[in-house]
Sequence to fold (594 residues):
Amino acid sequence: MFKFILVGALLSSAVFFVSCSNDVRINKPQTSVSQQESSSAHMPYGAYVAGRVAHLRKDFNKASDYYIKSLQIDPENKELVSRLYLLLVSKGRVAEAAKYAKIAQKQGDKNNFIGVINNVQLMKEGKYKEVYEKTKNIKNPIYDEFINPLLIAWAYTGDGKKQEAIKSLEVIKKEPSFRALYNFHAGMIYDYFNDTRNAQEHYEIIVDEEQLEMSFRALQIICNFYIRTGQKEKAVELLSRYTQEKLLADMLKSLNKNVRKAIPEKTDRIIKNPNDGVAEALFSIAATLRQGNAGIDLAHMFISMSIYENPNYDLAKLLLADILESRDMYADANDVYDSIPKSSDAYYTVQLKKANNYMTMEDYNAAEILLKSMAYDMDSYQVYLDLGDVLRIKKKNDEAIEYYERAIKKLKIIDGSQWPLFYALGIAYEQDEQWDKAETSFKKALELSQNHYLVLNYLGYVWIKQGKNVDQAFTMIVDAYNQAPNDGNVIDSLGLALYKLGYYGMAIKYLEKAAEIEPSNAVISDHLGDAYWFGKRRNEARFQWQHALIMKEATEELNKENVQKKIKKGLKDEPKLTYNKELIEEQIQLIDKE
Fold:
């Protein structure tokens, strides 16, 4: 529990670098009107406002630059200085951050994080002795028991003091949840000093005790150690234990390949200097903080400092990109991914993450180009699946079907986890008007997903629109609704089904609910207009049809020509479906309890 409790304690003493309060005041110097007109672009308030806008837009580099301009004219602004050094850290501009952190400290800022920034900069400059001497001045339980021991250990390492380095880690060992962390860093320090026996002892505590967490970084470091010390077979055996880890499958595959072809005499150590070691310490701190949502600000800053100490640390870049994605900063995350070389074990994973970010940003062209280049180079299930999704979104259903089918051929075993693939393939077939194949895919998705509401809803909706298998379709939609009663699309399907069955009052009730949840959905407005018409609410019907015409329609399901005809002439023929009234009303009893 300690590692989660520490987040709250740390946050209580830290100023969030993403904070954008209105408390910062910029003092305007007295100038004449003519001076103001000639130099308005350089006024501190103008620079502050520009910085604040950039800050709110999460452009932390630009925000920092504008805040620096403001401080050049208003250097005594304590709040702005304290905000600035945290922003600079988040962008890895640690040397600048250290400069402003010292200014803030002189102005009375008592944030203990200033000490961390200064120590990271001292480590970068090779001033190891200053680090472990100055760190002792930071008095805070969290720093004393977690952060400082890691930083001090690597400072002692840089100063050539092996025993002092190991001793400084002892406090971490007291916390059971940090047992793996202690042994990992102790192993790396002994390894750095070429103390192979002690390094192996600590590494193998992690390897042998299954309850200890084995991170991907630990796998990399320990396998590298085994190879360099003539124990390559142990590295191969160790990796074989983790080949079923789906979350890291591609990275493990790359690491496995590189380990098997590694030549011990030509294998360089991963931790080449104390700065690489302190980067590992900062990574460990960031990864721990990242586990709690409240710690994301601090995790962002710690991981940026880790990369500052070791610019080639690819896993740290992965964590930074993950944090940026959690902040919806997808373009920034992709910039980080672009700095990871093809030689990295993470490269393949990074390309998929980039493509996913392009999709999130709705840059489907960029996603398609990237994924097609990957498909050209490799025969991969995940690439084919993601590419199929992009092409389906772009309405290239014939191509999407091709890649979905390739993905299916890559499956050695088909289990419940693959239901989204068959569901997506069914949608592509349906939109490509290959209905028989679509139906087969949807039924397979239902089987694999154990009747997931998305599949029930889609198949039931299409059947209702076609007037096919009406009793079964309505039963499926009711099942979907009972699973997801607040999903706007599912409620729309239920409302449409009730409308098609002639239950206009109930149809209006559910379609109005769907419209409240999805107010910008043109298709729902169209359906609600139809229900209003036969519910004798003609003016409201025309209003909904007109509303449908002015909204963006993502699925291209809306027939605008038909909607325009309805606005002019209304509807003549009521929908007529053949169905088992007793069965339908039994199903209605399952939903109409509100």
